[in-house]
Amino acid sequence: MATVEQAVPISAQTRSERFVRFLTRSPIHIGLIAIALIWLVPTVGLGITSFRKPNDIASSGWWHGLTQWDWTLHNYGSVIHATGMGHAWVNSLIITIPATLLPLTLGALAAYGFAWVPFPFRDTIFLAIIALMVVPIQTSLVPLLKLFREWHLNTPHFGIGAFAFLGIWLAHTAFGLPLAIFLLRNFFITLPKDLIEAARMDGASNLAIFRRIVVPLSVPALASFAIFQFLWVWNDLLMALVFLAGQPDKAPMTVRIPYLLSTYGQEYNLLSAASFLLMIVPLIVFFSLQRYFVQGLLAGSVKT
Amino acid sequence: MSTQPLPTPVAAPPPSEGGGVTTRSIFGRFQGMLFVLPAIVALGLFLVYPAYYTIRLAFYEGSFNFGFEHYLGLKNFKELLTNDPDFLDTSKFHGFNIVQELLYKSDGGALVNNIHWVIFYIGFALVIGLGLAVLAVRVRYERAVKTAIFIPMAISATAVGIIWLFVYSPNPDTGVLNATINAFDNGFHPIAWLGRPNLVNYCLIFAYVWASVGFVMVVLSAAIKGIPAEIMEAARVDGAGEWNIFRRIMFPMLSLPLSVVTIWLFVNVIKVFDIIYVMTGGGPGTSSRVIAFTMYEETFLNGRPGYGAAVAVIMLVIIAPIMVLNVRRFRSERVVA
Questions:
Q1: Measured by CB atoms within 10 angstroms of the end CB, which terminus of chain A is less buried, N or C?
Q2: Architecture of the domain spanning A78-302
Q3: Closest CB from B35, B51, B326 relative to A110
Q4: Could you report the per-residue pLDDT of B50-60, keeping only the tens digit for each?
Q5: Domain extents for chain A?
Q6: Which positions in chain B touch A238 (Cβ < 8 Å)?
């Protein structure tokens, strides 16, 4: 170790070099901290606003809330009950969970096929799927809406009202699948070949190999995609706007908040509390599963 | 939910015996297909076929039930590109000053606005993201800075829109931007940032940059850490300054991640919709519309599905080179590996 340390040139620095280094570095600190503050302040401001009394919000900036500590949860109570935002929050979950599990399941199965089971035209089909990754949602909105209308999804079938969500689940599935297949296939293919060959020798079916070997070994990749897709769907506005239009009782938070804005544009207390409710889920996911989250984003860099 | 949308493939075949081999190999040829089939069907029905439908619809007028009514040929496209000042207003371009007009004027319609978005959104996001990635590795509180920058990435564009509506609020008592300027300059008249046609696009762009820089920073920062330390040390020992190390070593080695990030930003900016819908609704007037906004507006608010489909096709055409690029890159990577 000692020899290695000697090889590091920093120890050979003279005093003047260190001084220059300090001088050149203070702008770095100032710049970094300033940018970090600019990036934090807007979110913090919204958070503080959501805990202040409506009169205070109207009469003074949120930064006064840092010194006047008469915070309240009242805004959350009224936004959840009076404006139906609690209901919309539940809708967001109802939309997001199946729209995450469905492409995860279908994508993992397909990725296994592309990685480990040869079949005719496999590579061509896979390349086509890569190309589909960046297709804009806009090219599908109208035909899908037409299709879902023909299915009469907004009337209950067999007494189940959840059919209203089937359209948006399927649309999100289709748009999540190319990324799921791409990501998972690239991970599956790195699994040790010997392991899979050995299982085949022992007579394991492909489905058994998939379930007993591939899935348990691929939890990090599956988690990365699941988190990416979960946030994608949770944060989506456009698809919900189009596919759940005219059904306010089915609308997720991302749709209800602009609606709130158009009706209560000046009621900052309601808007800020509603936005904070919308943000809280991604923030919890972010802080608890940061590693997978970042991995998923890095891997998802090929999608938008 | 069901985890087996597939008809279960063959039960485990008998391990020994020669007769099973032929049935297995015939079946085996299509077994992979069975795994892929549900995904292919979903993609075909809900992504590929709709895209075909939209392309076809772009040649019709369409109606409220989105059928193929009134064949128009290329008329939708012609109308969009020559006779719709909200989409592309070429009358604003004079002579050879196109570049100048593009950069300094923002009343050229949705397409020109989107070009502004491409230039300034990608430019700012890359410069800020790269700067942060390069600088953050040099300080001890790297993690804290990165977390602060990255948080907006997790937030929905809807929430980003509300957050920045508060920041840009014209009321200096509540809007933090006007209040900050006011603190330095007392006689200052608060600005309605989103109410001015010549400012609104840049304000929206900055809000979206704010939300996207975290991604650029994380990707580039991971790439910088992947540069072998020996190369940097060798350069330092040879007396290279920090600037030269950045320019001659880091920057060239970052070309691949930079291109990935630029493509991501580009696709993002062509599809940008949510934040504009929430913050300005395309206004004031039509001055902050972009391509995706026009598509939504024409199709669902103005009841012109054929016209909206033509806008969607233009989006697809703009993004098509990225599709080719992605496929090519994947192929070349595989050759290397």
A1: N
A2: Orthogonal Bundle (1.10)
A3: B35
A4: 999 999 999 99
A5: 13-72, 78-302
A6: 273-274, 277, 292, 296
